[in-house]
């Protein structure tokens, strides 16, 4: 009988030791039940912005997949508009327009709580730099999402530009679901280019974006 009592006490003690870890994990599931679509810009024959060290199409997908992993770890249900190098075009004529139309259609079919489109910027002037979030007035939540994530990024990162409303983008003005476009930096700027190729910086950026998303859903 004493052996059984001792075994019960040991089991209870071991269970007690694991409880704080279990509780901490549950508390971190801040995005549980939230549906988020991540759109890695460009793909297929469309490389996006290119220089000698970065092809936008490829880096967009790397960042999207990193963000997917981070959001899933917080309990979110995540969809990607593309999971490889291909685009979503279904025609050879007006291929780009077809790709953008199908992305918008895919996002609205899922009807997520939020979509995040990831791109990289480029300019003829190498002095332009920094991450910037764009939004449209298609959904009334878009501006608040842009503001919330941008304000959080400013607390964690440097060279974060002010949000900008732009209703001219073909794809985003056809999406009814709430969301934003993140231009993660200028590959034409030497500093941004170096940082965007640095995995440590990529991870810091992704965690900061994820935290901004969490903050939005926590307050809205």
Order of helices and strands: HEHEHEEHEEHH
Structural class estimated from helices and strands: alpha/beta
Proportion of residues in extended strands:
5-15%
| Distance, first to last CA | 56 Å
SS element count, helices: 6
Radius of gyration: 21 Å
Considering DSSP H and I runs of 4 or more, what fraction of the residues is helical? Answer: 40-55%
- How does the overall form come out from the CA principal axes? globular
Instruction: Tell me the strand order in the biggest sheet.
Output: 2-1-3-6-4-5
> pLDDT average, as an integer?
91
Major beta sheet summary: 6 strands, mixed
Outline the low-pLDDT stretches.
Answer: 19-27
The count of β-strands is 6
Give a brief description.
Helices cover 47% and strands 15% of the residues.
Secondary structure layout:
Elements (H helix, E strand, L loop, with lengths): L1 H26 L7 E6 L15 H18 L3 E4 L14 H16 L3 E8 L10 E4 L6 H15 L7 E2 L13 E8 L3 H7 L2 H21 L1
Parallel strand pairs: 1-2, 1-3, 3-6, 4-5
Antiparallel strand pairs: 4-6
Helix pairs in contact: 2-6, 4-6
What would you note in describing this structure?
Helices cover 47% and strands 15% of the residues. It has 220 residues and is of the alpha/beta class. Strands 2-1-3-6-4-5 form a six-stranded mixed β-sheet, with helices on both faces. It starts with a helix and ends with a helix. About 4% of the residues have low confidence.
